[in-house]
Design a protein that fits this description.
Layout (H helix, E strand, L loop, with lengths): L7 H8 L3 H12 L3 H18 L8 H7 L5 H12 L3 H8 L2
Helix pairs in contact: 1-2
Length: about 100
């Protein structure tokens, strides 16, 4: 999920399944589509990275890019949709 250009086909090839089978397994198992699943994993990773002090020298966008997003706008939109807060508000409100 950290690979920005990861596709359903990539997962199908890696698992030796058809894209249909991978898509169906994701939809049935998680109730969401492939992109939503990948973005969920990316946001979870970003949340971890935002709270790790070793990353304080990195910008939010740099962390997003490291976690597989390739667009600042998409990162902000997806993060806010999933978390209910912007990344900066999340970081500020969850730091110890």
């Amino acid at each position: 999920f950290l690979k920005p250009d990861l596709t359903l086909k990539d997962v199908a090839v890696a698992t030796k399944l058809s894209t249909h089978d991978v898509s169906e397994a994701i939809n049935n198992g998680h109730g969401i589509n492939f992109n939503e699943l990948i973005n969920r994993h990316r946001v979870d990773k970003i949340k971890q990275e935002l709270l790790d002090e070793k990353n304080d020298h990195l910008s939010l966008v740099a962390i997003a890019y490291d976690c597989g997003f390739h667009s600042k706008a998409t990162f902000n939109r997806v993060f806010k949709k999933q978390v209910g807060q912007s990344p900066s508000v999340y970081k500020a409100s969850h730091r110890k």
